[in-house]
Amino acid sequence: MDLDELLNNDSFTKEEIIFLLSLKKEEEINKLFQRADEVRQKYCGNEVHLRGIIEISNYCEQNCIYCGLRFDNHFIKRYRMSPDEIVKTAKTITNEGIFTVVLQSGEDSYFDSEIISYIIYQIKQNTDVAITLSLGERNFDEYKKWKIAGADRYLLKHETANPRLYEAYHFKQELSERLEHLEFLKSLGYQIGSGNLIGLPMQTIEDIADDILLCQKFDLDMAAFGPFIPSPHTPYHKKKGADVLLTLKTMAVARLVLKNVHIPSTTALATLDKNGRKKGLQCGANVVMPDFTPFPYREHFQIYANRKCMLDDPKVCSSCLQFQIESIGRKISKSKGDSLKQNAILS
Ligand code: SAH
Ligand code: SF4
């Protein structure tokens, strides 16, 4: 395959995606990254959207094999933030000039449809922000109530598009069910985000190509490609973490294939590589998701070990991010950063 020609393609077959993900020569990889940066500039412009995350609970009823919050991990201290603490933290986020609040947690049914609706309503009453929910798989009635209460977006990663691996990582849960949830969220008018974990045991380059193609099929508004980092007290604690270069190549290829989609440069990538955040932004990403979970809770949201900026004050993180973003000639967006797709229902 001729690389220069391929990089200028408008659409890509699975074989072409595998070819790009498998590039080995530094010069060729640099060409891929440069092209991803051009495509990002064309479809997303120069702005970086910040999404302030509040990790409202680390209780989880699921047992995902790779995750430190899994039900069977009895070594972490569990917490739930109160609705008032959550609403107050949302206010802190907007005061920092960030106009998306992400409410994230394990699958925690204690936060039922009423409590989450109340929190959404209170945040929307007090501030002009977009709200993203990342609360795992919940029932369809809850998704509906939360949409009516004012939620704008839902982030539910498919994690892997390989049904066999999905069952292995999630103890017989089925990928088809996960995808039904995504379909349902979309039908309710949520802007939807999904994505994979890179570097999980048994995963192949073909699987990653399928992940990108699944994101294309679902016409996502946001697609996240995060590296797996082994987490203590999980069955995968001794496994090898993801390769940074493969993560960056995945983000770059995803940008070429998916085009007008929001792609975050993840905290997990910044955890694996001290310049990971910037590298991601230069390989196709246009979103960063700083953590605003207050102390003492934040250090207990241990999805994986040694998370970047875990002990930093969120305000310090904000100025550090601003510096990093401006140092690569980009600027922080002052908008909510809604979907780039024309058919999305905007907040
Ligand atoms: N419970 C919700 C949201 C919190 S988990 C859910 O599962 O959707 C958010 C994300 O953390 C997951 O989608 C998963 O991709 C990521 N994650 C879990 N364990 C991880 C690990 N060990 N390394 C990197 N990311 C991980
Ligand atoms: Fe729970 Fe989400 Fe972790 Fe799975 S990935 S164990 S659902 S917090």
From TrEMBL:
[4Fe-4S] cluster binds at C60, C64, C67. (3R)-3-methyl-D-ornithine binds at S134. The gene is hydE. It comes from Stygiobacter electus. PROSITE patterns: RADICAL_SAM (PS51918). S-adenosyl-L-methionine binds at E159, R178. This is [FeFe] hydrogenase H-cluster radical SAM maturase HydE. It holds the Pfam family Radical_SAM. Its cofactor is [4Fe-4S] cluster. Keywords: 4Fe-4S, Iron, Iron-sulfur, Metal-binding, S-adenosyl-L-methionine. One of its GO terms (molecular function) is 4 iron, 4 sulfur cluster binding. Gene3D superfamilies: Aldolase class I. SUPFAM superfamilies: Radical SAM enzymes (SSF102114). Residues 46-268 form the Radical SAM core domain. Binds 1 [4Fe-4S] cluster. The cluster is coordinated with 3 cysteines and an exchangeable S-adenosyl-L-methionine.
